[in-house]
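Re: the request from the purification team.
They wanted to know what the chain is likely to look like in 3D before they choose a buffer screen. I agreed to run a prediction and write the result into the notebook, where they can find it.
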Amino acid sequence: MKISPGKQKGLQAVSDQRGVVAAAAMDQRGSLKSAIAKEKGIDKKAVTKEMMAEFKEAVVRILTPYASAILLDPEYGLSAAKLRAKNAGLLLAYEKSGYDNTQPGRLPDLLEHYSVKRLKAAGADCIKILLYYTPFDPPAINETKHAWVERIGSECAAEDIPFFLEFVGYEGDLDEKGIEFARRKPGCVIKSMEEFSKPQYGVDVMKVEVPVTMAFVKGTRACKGESVYTREQAREYFQKAAAVARKPFIYLSAGVSNETFSETLELAGESGVNFSGVLCGRATWKDGIPVYGKHGIKALEDWLADQGAKNIQNVNDRLITAKPWFAFYGATSAAALS
């Protein structure tokens, strides 16, 4: 396995000294606007660009000393990108927030005023794309999505910059936090990881959901009632998903609490899977939104310096079982792949 110089450089920039991705995510846009509006008791349209930038800047300045990288969006996050710690690389999001809800299939779109070339010029070490995806959608919908990902993969190859593909599963109108989706989730995650491992997509790192819903894993702290899987079954699903991956993969936190994400990573470690780290957003900083909404920026900064820092360190402590991204290819260092 060979990796081009630009891709190798980008992957090293967003990894820690071990070659593990211990990255924070702060590229939320629509959902962050809604949350700030709710806590401030104002209309979503009244959340200004300045408020969005201020929140992101505080998170980046205070938490990146504990992270190997930060994921930001170019719409509100470029001022924050300049404030990151020297140890932290930069991933930039290329997709528009949300998806097209005027037709079935949760179809994605790219930011109109950006290209991979422009994101790279803005300082990106890696490019990240979010795609809502289920292998069980009609072929016409998934062919559209497959071609979309292939185009972005080609663009990243032309600019010699790593391509991180994040895919988030869904199933028709099912509640993604509910028990019915929990039953479908393992198949959705496993088939998606298998699909986007294929070489035509040009994906360098898959940012994936864990293949179970922790709230339905019997015996976990996250499970408060009904269960769908035993702990043993959950471990098997982790192993099955990892077994189909042909690219390094990292886990996303999917908006769960810090405690639940920490427990998730413990289960991944127990399963012995070869994950290469995390890109963790809301599990680190989402509880700071009410603080910011009700008490302002100084209170948020104080909260981030205390609880936010503890949250990110909780996650980092559970990356002890993560494997370097280059080890996925059987290499002992990134340089061995050039």
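For the purification team: The mean pLDDT is 97.
Please add any questions underneath this entry.
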